[in-house]
Amino acid sequence: MVNEEVLEYLENLIPDRPQYVEQMENFAKQNGVPIMEKTGIEVLLLLLSMQQPKKILEIGTAIGYSAIRMALKLPNTEIITIELDEERFHQANQHIKKMGLDKRIHTVYGDALNASENIKKFAPFDALFIDATKAKYAKFFQIYEPMLSENGVIYTDNVLFKGTVARDRSELTTRRQRTLVRKLDEFNQWLYTLDSYETTIIPVGDGIAVTKRK
Ligand code: SAH
Ligand code: MG
Predict the structure, then answer these.
(1) HEC assignment per residue over the chain
(2) How far away, in angstroms, is 138 Cα from ligand 1 center?
(3) What pTM does this model have?
(4) To bridge 37 with a disulfide, which of 26, 111, 205, 208 should be the other Cys (CB 3.0-4.6 Å)?
(5) Residue 171's pLDDT is what?
(6) Nearest CA to ligand 1 atom 12
């Protein structure tokens, strides 16, 4: 999104993470696990530390990287995180346990599209972090937005999808990709039209939408 040179410059400014966290970053890179980008997570963590949410709901745990980063940044915050993929769910549990964060990070195994009854038990949430299947972003938003507390904020990752949302659709090769990009574009536009929320997209990492009640 920003040019290579600037990105490298910014990434080099970021302080080292705990060794275990850096090992997770390396594992993710080697195994194609789409954890948040380095500059993106920094911005998310900064915003969260300003917001100081007591409880966060994360949709899309993957191996637990972002949940662990949030828990380390916010020592009094509880995180509920849901993951659909069984193997990743187990990997996340291992990492969370290893970091001694299993008291504050509650992992849920399941599909966020039909887990609302289960998740509701943990509500209300002060922050909702959407970071799962991009084609379902609007659904996740609609299902979980009602569980937000009064000053709740919704953070959605990957909304610029490597810049593809801004590109001419005909340049995209597969139909699947075109559909996905169209859906994501519609989601972004929809966020900006909501009466009771205001949104801004921060073009950092893979694009983070920040949506706050008016
Ligand atoms: N937040 C993580 C990365 C998540 S990657 C981090 O930055 O560290 C997206 C994850 O969402 C994948 O592991 C995928 O299996 C999961 N996912 C996709 N659709 C889902 C759904 N409907 N419910 C729960 N998890 C889902
Ligand atoms: Mg992401």
Answers:
(1) CCCHHHHHHHHHHCCCCCHHHHHHHHHHHHHCCCCCCHHHHHHHHHHHHHHCCCEEEEECCCCCHHHHHHHHHCCCCEEEEEECCHHHHHHHHHHHHHCCCCCCEEEEECCHHHCHHHHHCCCCEEEEEECCCHHHHHHHHHHHHHHEEEEEEEEEECCCHHHHHHCCHHHCCCHHHHHHHHHHHHHHHHHHHCCCEEEEEECCCCCEEEEEEC
(2) 15
(3) 0.97
(4) 205
(5) 86
(6) 62
Using most ligand atoms within 8 A of CB, pick from 83, 89, 99 the residue to mutate for ligand 1. 83
Q: Return the pLDDT at 136.
A: 98
pLDDT for 91: 98
Residues bordering ligand 2, an ion, CB closer than 5 Å? 131, 157-158
Query: For residue 59, which ligand has an atom nearest its CA?
Result: 1
Residue 83, ligand 1, Cβ within 6 A: yes
Instruction: Give the mean pLDDT of 92-108.
Output: 98
Q: Determine the distance separating the centroid of ligand 1 and the alpha carbon of 83, expressed in angstroms.
A: 6
User: CATH number for the domain including 69?
Assistant: 3.40.50.150
Show the domain range for 197: 4-213
127 vs 3 pLDDT, higher one: 127
Domains in the chain: how many in total? 1
Residue 155 — pLDDT band, cuts 50, 70, 90?
Answer: very high
Residue 112 Cα: closest atom of ligand 1: 23
